[in-house]
Amino acid sequence: MYVRSRYEKRVDEQLKFSGLTSYLPLIKKIKKWSDRKKIVEEPLFRSYVFVNIQQQFEFSRALSLDGVCDFVRFGNELAMVRDGEIENIRILLQGDLKNIETVRHMPQVGEVRKIQHGSLKGLECEILRINGENKILVRVNSIHTDITATVPLGCFQHAAAR
Fold this sequence. Notes:
Number of helices: 3
Number of domains: 2
Order of helices and strands: EHEEEEHEEEHEEEEE
Strand content: 25-35%
Number of strands: 13
């Protein structure tokens, strides 16, 4: 479902309270203020909450909740996320991964991109190498999104050990 900005947790709670099965993948991030740092949980997919609808009347029940905008659609088709994709997201978030983020379109080697955040914001650069930092990729094809994360070196097997 597509929900109002910053309403993800409220909608997830309302869905569960109304008897619907929902899933809101959360990631932990460190937020810095001038006087302190705090670990907060944020939605992995901003403005999205996954809901399992089994019967027709559940559509209207879910849409009637405060903060819900609509079901995600691609053209006239509802976006359907397969159980296996949800399970992959759950497994990914249970791991000891750092720098988890969602990426709508994976960069390609040779592609020119503009940096959007941080001290290099606005810099146009060419993508030279994608997997230079032990990155893995989990595709969620149903919503046209990729998730990348930096993986500790201990998670990899040596080629000879296979």
